[in-house]
Amino acid sequence: xxxxxxxxxxxxxxxxxxxxxxxxxxxxxxxxxxxxxxxxxxxxxxxxxxxxxxxxxxxxxxxxxxxxxxxxxxxxxxxxxxxxxxxxxxxxxxxxxxxxxxxxxxxxxxxxxxxxxxxxxxxxxxxxxxxxxxxxxxxxxxxxxxxxxxxxxxxxxxxxxxxxxxxx
Length: 168
Prior knowledge:
The protein is of the alpha+beta class. It has helices spanning 2-46, 51-76, 82-98, 100-115, 155-159, and strands at residues 123-126, 129-136, 140-144, 150-154, 163-166.
């Protein structure tokens, strides 16, 4: 009986240590991801970056760290993570190709927000439209024309064309 218990313990203890280690890796990693994303958010708020961009980047940082932590925890459990890493890479490539237009608009929105070729309230002419900029969003810019029409232009189209900013 004693020998049987010793055999059971000799099998269970290494697995229990790995399970506890994996859980600790996950808990600490999730905590680190939350702190890192919150620190990033505070840094962006002090530099007056657009809230939409800050929120998106904060979430990207959090989930990127969390994916790394999950892979590390699974590796600690003895699970081969090479296939997970390859699958995440392939999924990222597929999503990137599927959202190519949206990603171009997103990148253009980030450039407009960071470099500020125009601001909310400016009257601009771009992509064949003229109007007052009402809102600069991450994927598009919303303007109101002189005849009170709402104009929504994708940001990639704006950055790919000339922009004329009229002085006030």
